[in-house]
Amino acid sequence: MQPEIEVISEITDIETIAIGHSIRELNRLQRMYGRGRWRKLKGVATVRLPDGTIRLAQIHWYEAHGIGRYDFKVKRVLGK
Questions:
Q1: Nearest-CA neighbor of 62 among 77, 27, 53, 48?
Q2: pTM of the model
Q3: Could you give the dihedral angle defined by the CA atoms of residues 18, 24, 28 and 30, in that order, rounded to the nearest 10 degrees?
Q4: What local confidence, expressed as pLDDT, does residue 47 receive?
Q5: pLDDT grade, residue 70 (50/70/90)?
């Protein structure tokens, strides 16, 4: 499992990547967090990495209405 990151700014440029059964990890999400209309999204935000550095990064996460946002992952560090 990837170490925790902390999102420290507003997430911008949000795009939906997958919805419902198009999500590979749908069964795990429903088992861990509950049934809902799950979506996988991506966006850009300033994050604090596990080593303490602060960077602008492209992040991916899952969210469902009424359940929340979970499993943030840094996919690409964009700036210094």
A1: 27
A2: 0.88
A3: 40
A4: 95
A5: very high
